Amino acid sequence: SFFYASVSGNHYLRNLNNIIKGNPSATYSDIANQLNKSIATVKRNLQKLKEFGIIKREGADKTGRWIILK
Question: Which of 38, 44, 46, 69 is 20 to 30 Å from the Cα of 52, by its Cα?
Answer without folding.
Answer: 38
